[in-house]
Design a protein that fits this description.
- Pfam families: LRR_6.
- By secondary structure, the protein is of the alpha/beta class.
- It folds into 6 domains: 1-119, no CATH class; 121-214, Ribonuclease Inhibitor (Leucine-rich repeat, LRR (right-handed beta-alpha superhelix), Alpha-Beta Horseshoe); 218-385 and 399-404, Ribonuclease Inhibitor (Leucine-rich repeat, LRR (right-handed beta-alpha superhelix), Alpha-Beta Horseshoe); 408-514, Immunoglobulin-like, CATH 2.60.40; 563-706, no CATH class; 717-859, EF-hand (Recoverin, domain 1).
- The chain is 38% helix and 15% strand.
- The chain has 32 helices and 24 strands.
- Helix 13 packs parallel to helix 14 and helix 21 crosses helix 22.
- It is elongated.
Length: 874
C-alpha cells in the first residue's frame, strides 16, 4: 500500500470535505497485527534518536509534505508510539495526542489543522471545516501539545458551547494573540474558559472575534465583565448576535472602564432606541476606541430624536474615535442634521460611514442631510468598516472616508506672478472631489496655499479669485471634453458662475493610512466674519443670460451624430466590407472628429469655394505641412485618391460643390490615404492600424493648428466681450436684420455673400484683410451642423454666429503680436465702422456707450455684506 501517494490535504469547503480514510484507503487499527507489533521489540525500545519517531524530539512540525507523512506514519504506528513514549517517558507529538483521542472515540482521522498544506506554523486556520463537537475533544488534545500557536481560527465549525469550551480549556495562552470563534454557538462555558485565557498572567490575546455566536444576555454580560480590566485585548467583534437593549448597560460599562480596546464591531444587532442611548453615554466617556461599527442597528426613526441627540453629544465629546460606521440605521433627515451638528466640532473622526440614511458625507467629512436617500441601492454597495478584504476591491462609488480609501495630504499653492496673475481678495481652489465647490486658501509670505486631504489618483482642479477662474502654470493642464458650467453661492449671498474648458490636474500616489492621523482636520473650514459697508459690487456674470446663451457647443453628442451621418453617406462601407473592421474605423475616426471638424472648417474657408468644400490645392498644402509626401508617396498619389473621394454625386447633395471635398468626403479621403500609404504597402497589418498611424504621426499635429476651441472659451466666451456686445446690441441687431433682408435667403439669416457685403460696406476690407480672411471668419463662427450636404444651415448665420464672426474679424483686423489687446477692446475699435452701416433712424437715437456704461454693466454701488475668512489654528 503506497501511503505517500494518498496524503491528506487541507480542505476549505464542506463539499470537498472527506475523511482521511477516504484519502488513504481503508485504514483501521486492525491493520497492525500482533505480529507487526512484536516484530522488532528490542530495536523498538532502544533509546536512540532513530527509534524515537512519534516523539517531540523527531517532530517535523505541522506544515508541508513531511508533516503529512509524519501524520500518516503516526496513525499507522499509533499503538507502538504511544506505548514507547509511555515507557521511555517521551513527550507526545500533537499527532499522537490528537490521533489517540480519535482512536479511542472510533472517529475518522481528519487532520483538522493538526497538519496543514501550507501557511505559518503559528496559525491554525480551519474556518468552514464543520468540525462539530464530535471532534472537538480530540482536536483539543492535539492543540494542548502545540505551544507556539498565535492565531486560532475556528469560524463556522458547527461547534456548540460544549465543544468550544473543550477546545478553549486546552489552549495554551502564552503565545496566542488571535482567537476567532465566529459562526459557532457559544455560551457561558466558553466564556468561563475565555476568562481563564484572557486573565492569564501570560495572556497576549489582542483579537477576539465572536460574530454570530448566538451569545445570550448572561453570557455577554459575563464577557463584558471579564474584559473591563483587560489590558491586552485590542479588537473585539460581537456583530450579528441580536444584542438588544438589555445588554447595552454591560457594553456601556465596558467601554467606560476599558482603556485598551481600539476596535469594536457591533454591526447587525438590535441595540434599539433606549439601549443605544445608554451605549452612547458610555461612548462619550471612552478614552481608547478608534474604530466603531454600529451599522444595521435600527437606531433611527425616533419620535423625539433622543437617539440622534445622544449620538450627537457622544461624537461631540469624543476625543479618541477616528472611524465610525453608522450605515443603514435609517436615520431621517432631521436626525442626520442633529448627528452632523454634534460632529461639527469633532476634528478627530476621519471617516464616518452614513450609507442607508437620509444624508451623505462630503469630502471634508461634513454630514449633508437630504430629503430622501435610496437605501436599497446603497445596501448593495456597503463596505464593512472593520473587515479586512482578501481580494482587491474595485470601488463603484466614493465613500469620502479618508481611512478606508487611504486619502492623502496634499499641498496646493498659488504663487502670484509665477502661478499666474496677481489677484485682490481671497483665492479659492476648486477640487473635483469637492464637486468643484470653492475652498479658500491661506496667504503666507505672499503665497496662497491650502493643505487638503484628497483621494489618490488624478485630481482635477482650478483656482478662482474675484469670481474669475485661473489655471496655475505650475501644474499640468487638461482639456475637458465638455466645458464646466457651475454656479456657487458666495458668503456675501451672491452667485459665482464658472464656464471653463481647461483645468489643472495632478496625480496622487496611494499611501498607507497613518494611524496617528493627518495634519489636515475634517470639518475644519475657516469661519466667515461678516459686516456691512458701502462698496462697488461686482455684478455676477451669467452665461445663460449672456449674448452667447443660444450657442450650441460641439459636445460629444453633436460630434457623435456628425460622424454617424458622414459615415452613413460616405463610400467607406464600400471600401471596407467587413462589418467589424468598418466599426473599428468609425470608432477611430470618432476619436479624432473634434480635430477633423475644426480642420475642415479652416481648410474649406481658405479654398475659395462658397459652399465651403476643400479644394485640391488647399488639401495639398495641408498635407505638405503634415510632412506626408515622400519619394514613395507624391501629389500624383493624392490626386488619384482625391478623384476617388470626390466622385460625381448622384445623391441630390445640394450643398456639395463637386469640385471640392465636403466633410464626409474629407473623412473618406483620410481612410483611402491610410490604406494607400500604409496598408497596401504592408507597413501595418490592419486598416485600423494604418488609420491610427496616419492620424497620430502626420495629420493630428497638422490639424491641431486649426483647433479654435481654446480661443472661443478663453478669449470670446467671457464677461467683458459679452458686455461690449450687449452695450452695442441696439445697433448690432438692426445691422444683422438689414443684411439678412438684403439677399434672396431667409430674412433672419445672413449668408456668406451678405457677410462679405457687410464687411465691404463697413470699410473693413484692406490689402491685409481681404475676402479670404472674411470667409475664414464667417466659417469659423458657424456652429457645427450634422448634415452639411442636404441642409444649408452651415451657410447661413443666425445672430449668435454673426456677433462671433464680427469678433473674429476684429481679432484679426487689429492683431498686434508685439502689443496684444483684449478682444473686448478690439470690438470697441470696430464698432464705429459697424455704426456706419446701421440705419439712420437707429443711430439718431443711439447713445454711444462710455466707459461708465460698460462699468455699470459689470458693477453696481450698494450696501453689501462684507466678510472675511478666519482660519482655525488647529
Amino acid at each position: 500500500m503506497n501511503l505517500t501517494a494518498k496524503l491528506p490535504l487541507i480542505r476549505r469547503s464542506n463539499d470537498s470535505r472527506g475523511s482521511l480514510r477516504s484519502t488513504l484507503g481503508p485504514i483501521s487499527l486492525s491493520m497492525f497485527s500482533p505480529k507487526e507489533k512484536k516484530e522488532y521489540p528490542i530495536k523498538f525500545l532502544r533509546p536512540s534518536r532513530e527509534g524515537r519517531g512519534g516523539s517531540m524530539e523527531t517532530y517535523k512540525g505541522p506544515i508541508g509534505l513531511d508533516a503529512k507523512l509524519d501524520f500518516v506514519d503516526t496513525f499507522k504506528h499509533l499503538p507502538m508510539f504511544t506505548e514507547r513514549n509511555r515507557i521511555q517517558n517521551l513527550e507526545d507529538t500533537p499527532n499522537i495526542a490528537y490521533l489517540g483521542e480519535v482512536s479511542r472515540r472510533n472517529l475518522k482521522p481528519e487532520p483538522f489543522g493538526i497538519v496543514r498544506r501550507n501557511g505559518p506554523e503559528t496559525s491554525i486556520d480551519i474556518q468552514g471545516y464543520g468540525m462539530g463537537d464530535t471532534y472537538a475533544e480530540a482536536f483539543s488534545e492535539g492543540l494542548s501539545v502545540v505551544k507556539d500557536v498565535e492565531t486560532l481560527n475556528l469560524k463556522e465549525n458547527r461547534l456548540t458551547d460544549s465543544g468550544a469550551s473543550k477546545i478553549l480549556n486546552k489552549l495554551i495562552a502564552r503565545n496566542l494573540k488571535k482567537v476567532i470563534l465566529s459562526e459557532n454557538r457559544i455560551g457561558l462555558k466558553s466564556i468561563l474558559c475565555l476568562e481563564k485565557i484572557l486573565n492569564h498572567v501570560d495572556s497576549k490575546i489582542k483579537v477576539l472575534e465572536l460574530e454570530k455566536t448566538h451569545l445570550s444576555d448572561k453570557a455577554l454580560e459575563s464577557l463584558c465583565r471579564l474584559l473591563i480590566d483587560n489590558k491586552i485585548l485590542v479588537r473585539l467583534s460581537l456583530a450579528k448576535n441580536n444584542i438588544g437593549e438589555g445588554c447595552a448597560k454591560p457594553l456601556k460599562e465596558l467601554i467606560i472602564s476599558n482603556n485598551t480596546l481600539k476596535y469594536l464591531d457591533l454591526h447587525w444587532n438590535q441595540l434599539g432606541k433606549e439601549g443605544a442611548i445608554d451605549f452612547f453615554e458610555g461612548l462619550g466617556q471612552n478614552k481608547s476606541l478608534k474604530h466603531l461599527d454600529l451599522s444595521w442597528n435600527s437606531l433611527g426613526r425616533s419620535n423625539n430624536f433622543a437617539t440622534a441627540k445622544a449620538l450627537g453629544q457622544a461624537l461631540n465629546s469624543q476625543k479618541f474615535l477616528q472611524h465610525v460606521d453608522l450605515s443603514h440605521n435609517y436615520f431621517n433627515q432631521k436626525e442626520c442634521e442633529i448627528i452632523g451638528d454634534g460632529l461639527l466640532e469633532n476634528h478627530r473622526i476621519y471617516g464616518i460611514h452614513m450609507a442607508g440614511n437620509d444624508c451623505h458625507v462630503d469630502s471634508k467629512g461634513y454630514i449633508i442631510p437630504v430629503e430622501y436617500q435610496n437605501k436599497t441601492d446603497q445596501g448593495h454597495l456597503h463596505t464593512r468598516l472593520l473587515s479586512i478584504s482578501r481580494f482587491k476591491e474595485h470601488n463603484i462609488s466614493r465613500l469620502n472616508c479618508w481611512i478606508c480609501e487611504k486619502w492623502v495630504e496634499v499641498y496646493f499653492d498659488w504663487k502670484p506672478e509665477i502661478s499666474g496673475q496677481e489677484c485682490n481678495g481671497p483665492i479659492f481652489i476648486h477640487l473635483d472631489c469637492d464637486n468643484y465647490k470653492p475652498s479658500v486658501t491661506q496667504e503666507k509670505n505672499g503665497i496662497f496655499s491650502i493643505k487638503r486631504m484628497v483621494p489618490h489618483g488624478h485630481i482635477k482642479f482650478f483656482f478662482s479669485a474675484d469670481s474669475k477662474f485661473m489655471r496655475s502654470k505650475e501644474y499640468k493642464t487638461k482639456i475637458l471634453d465638455t466645458p464646466i458650467r457651475l454656479e456657487f453661492p458666495t458668503p456675501d449671498k451672491k452667485k459665482f458662475h464658472i464656464n471653463i474648458s481647461k483645468v489643472n490636474v495632478i496625480y496622487i500616489e496611494s499611501e498607507d493610512w497613518d494611524p496617528q492621523g493627518p495634519e489636515v482636520k475634517p470639518r475644519n473650514d475657516p469661519k466667515v466674519r461678516e459686516w456691512t459697508e458701502t462698496i462697488i459690487e461686482k455684478i455676477p456674470w451669467d452665461f445663460n443670460t449672456s449674448t452667447f446663451k443660444d450657442y450650441r457647443f460641439d459636445t460629444e453628442e453633436v460630434l457623435s451624430k456628425c460622424i454617424n451621418f458622414d459615415f452613413d453617406v460616405s463610400n467607406i462601407k464600400d471600401i471596407i466590407t467587413d462589418g467589424n473592421e468598418r466599426q473599428e474605423i468609425q470608432d477611430s475616426l470618432a476619436s479624432h472628429y473634434k480635430l477633423i471638424t475644426e480642420a475642415f472648417k479652416q481648410l474649406s474657408a481658405t479654398s475659395g469655394i462658397e459652399l465651403f468644400n476643400i479644394g485640391k490645392n488647399t488639401l495639398n498644402e495641408f498635407l505638405k505641412k503634415c510632412n506626408l509626401f515622400s519619394t514613395d508617396f507624391t501629389m500624383n498619389d493624392v490626386a488619384i485618391l482625391w478623384n476617388l473621394s470626390n466622385a460625381p454625386q448622384v445623391k441630390g447633395e445640394a450643398f456639395n460643390a463637386g469640385n471640392g471635398l465636403c466633410r464626409y468626403e474629407f473623412a473618406e479621403f483620410m481612410v483611402r490615404l491610410a490604406i494607400d500609404k500604409f496598408y497596401k504597402n504592408k507597413k501595418v497589418k490592419t486598416i485600423k492600424e494604418a488609420l491610427e498611424r496616419l492620424m497620430n504621426e502626420y495629420l493630428v499635429p497638422g490639424m491641431k493648428l486649426f483647433d479654435q476651441s481654446s480661443w472661443k472659451t478663453d478669449f470670446y466666451l467671457i464677461e467683458d466681450v459679452d458686455h461690449v456686445l450687449k452695450a452695442f446690441k441696439p445697433i448690432l441687431e438692426p445691422v444683422f436684420i438689414k443684411y439678412a433682408a438684403s439677399g434672396k435667403g431667409p430674412l433672419d439669416k445672413i449668408n456668406l455673400h451678405e457677410f462679405r457685403m457687410f464687411c465691404n460696406d463697413a470699410g473693413l476690407n484692406s490689402d491685409t484683410f481681404a475676402m479670404r480672411e472674411i470667409d475664414m471668419c464667417f466659417r469659423q463662427a458657424m456652429m457645427t451642423e450634422i448634415d452639411e450636404i442636404l441642409d444649408g444651415d452651415h451657410l447661413e448665420m443666425v445672430y449668435v454666429e454673426f456677433v462671433e464672426g464680427l469678433a473674429r474679424v476684429a481679432d484679426l483686423l487689429y492683431m498686434n503680436p508685439k502689443d496684444p489687446e483684449l478682444l473686448a477692446f478690439k470690438l470697441l475699435k470696430i464698432m464705429p465702422s459697424v455704426a456706419k452701416v446701421c440705419p439712420d433712424h437707429i443711430t439718431k437715437f443711439f447713445e454711444w456707450p462710455s466707459d461708465e456704461t460698460l462699468f455699470n454693466l459689470k458693477y453696481k454701488k450698494r450696501y453689501v455684506a462684507k466678510y472675511e475668512y478666519v482660519h482655525s489654528s488647529n
